[in-house]
Structures are given as C-alpha cells and as structure tokens.
Specification:
By secondary structure, this protein is an all-alpha fold. The chain has helices at 2-27, 36-94. The protein has two helices and no strands. The chain is elongated.
C-alpha cells in the first residue's frame, strides 16, 4: 500500500505540474515576454493613475480645509446662541430669582 502511494503521489504531482504549465502556455503569453510597446503603455497608465491620485488628494485636502472652516463658523454660532440663552438666566439670578422658579414668580417673605 505504501509503495503504491509512494509511486502514485510523485507521478501525479509531476503530471499535474506539467498539465498546469501546458494550460498556462495555451492561455496567453508569459508576463516575462511582454513587448516594449506594452511596457510603454503600462508606464503611461501608471503615470495617468499617479496624476489622478495627486488630483484627488488635492481635492480631499481642499474639502478638509472647507469642512474645518465650516466647523469653526458653526462653533462660533453655537457659542453665540449659548451666550444669548445664558445672559437672561444670569440677569434673572442677579434680580433675586432662584433656580427652578419661573421668571417673575417670587416666594412671599411674609408669614
């Protein structure tokens, strides 16, 4: 049994590798045999991709700066609105109102 496996497995492996090589040859040319014209086309494609990548990176940086500026403006607006809501509250507290009371509602100090 082990003798048969010892002969069949290497034979099948060699046959499989040979069949794989034959199939690969029939499928198309080997990458190592690419013509110079194909190399020039490949170089142009790589250059075009690099140019597009540079363009997109610039657009992304511009958008990022715009978003940061928008966030600063919105933060300023929110701070201004918060200040508007805090100012009357501070005025109410300085007039003697206690927190939790409605404006103008006063507790009677008389017994």
């Amino acid at each position: 049994m082990y003798v048969i496996a010892g002969v069949v497995v290497p034979t099948a492996t060699v046959f499989g590798l040979w069949a794989w090589r034959v199939r690969a040859r029939a499928a198309g040319p080997d990458v190592r045999t690419v013509a110079d014209g194909d190399n020039a086309e490949l170089a142009r494609s790589v250059a075009a991709v690099q140019e597009r990548l540079t363009e997109l990176t610039g657009q992304l940086e511009t958008m990022s700066r715009d978003w940061e500026e928008r966030d600063r403006r919105l933060t300023g607006r929110l701070n201004a609105l918060l200040e508007l809501t805090e100012r009357p509250r501070r005025l109410d507290l300085s007039a003697g109102d206690r927190p939790g009371e409605r404006p103008g509602e006063r507790r009677s100090t008389r017994p």
